[in-house]
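Protocol step 4 of 5: obtain the predicted structure for the target chain.
Materials: sequence only (see below). No template structures provided, no constraints applied. The aim of this step is simply to have a reference model before the mutagenesis design in step 5. Sequence pasted as it appears in the construct record:
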Amino acid sequence: MIQSNTQGAAPSIFDALPDSAFIREAQLVQSPKRPDSPAPLPFSAPTLWRKVKAGTFPKPHRLSERVTAWKVGDVRAWINQHTADA
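Step 4 output (structure tokens):
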């Protein structure tokens, strides 16, 4: 079961973004460098990329040569799908 880490915590920027917005990896997953920063996904960056490669998480959009981001609506749909399955 996937649960958002923002439950019971201070609201994250993810909660305030519209579905059409883009969000970068650093705001999507927990990081040991930012342990107090809320993140909507309860796993690490390497796990995120393994899921993308396996086709079990939405593919990101390339916004420029060095910038990759996900649509907030795609991430929310993925979270809702995985919380509904539990």
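Step 4 remarks: The CA atoms of residues 25 and 69 lie 7 Å apart. The mean pLDDT is 85.
Proceed to step 5.
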